[in-house]
Amino acid sequence: MTERIIELLHRNLQEVFGEGDAARRRAAVEEFYTDDCVVHTPDGILVGREAVDTFAGELRAMHPHFVYAHRGEPAVLHDAGLLAWGSGPQGQAPEYTGLDLIHVRDDKIAVLYVFLNPQLA
């Protein structure tokens, strides 16, 4: 379970939130998220894969040249995982940073909490 949680943390960051191609992003959402997933963001709560896909696509469209990079190593505790990340132009300091906290059920993300760090958000 630990390896799967770490895989989901890394792949979600790149293949969902970092993906510019809508078809590839949608396929990743289908692979990584449960049907009834819930995503908590600073702007609200999203329910279901369609909502996650729409949110990730809109976020990507706002910053199409930004890349996501993990910061440090992920942490896993039972069926949950935590990953710190930063986002900004390739090769530059991140313009914003945050933390993803996931709860995994049946090898998929059931709940994602997205925390933005206030000093760089």
- The CATH architecture term is Roll
Biggest pleated sheet: 7 strands, mixed
| Broad structural category | alpha+beta
Strand content: 35-45%
Percent helix range: 25-40%
What's the level 1 CATH class? Alpha Beta
Radius of gyration using CA atoms only: 13 Å
Average pLDDT, rounded to a whole number, is 95
Task: Tell me the domain tally.
Answer: 1
Count helical runs. Answer: 3
Give the tally of β-strands. Answer: 7
CATH fold category name: Nuclear Transport Factor 2, Chain: A
End-to-end separation: 31 Å
InterPro entries: NTF2-like_dom_sf, SnoaL-like
Protein name: Nuclear transport factor 2 family protein
Domain SnoaL-like: 17-110
Pfam family, one: SnoaL_2
Outline:
The chain has 121 residues and is α+β, with helices and mostly antiparallel strands.
Walk me through what this model shows:
The protein has 121 residues and is of the alpha+beta class. It has a single domain (2-116), classed as Roll (Nuclear Transport Factor 2, Chain: A). The protein is 34% helix and 41% strand. It has three helices and seven strands, in the order ααββαβββββ. β1 and β2 (44-47) form a beta hairpin. α1 packs antiparallel against α2 and α2 crosses α3. The longest helix has 16 residues, at 2-17. The protein is globular and about 35 Å long.
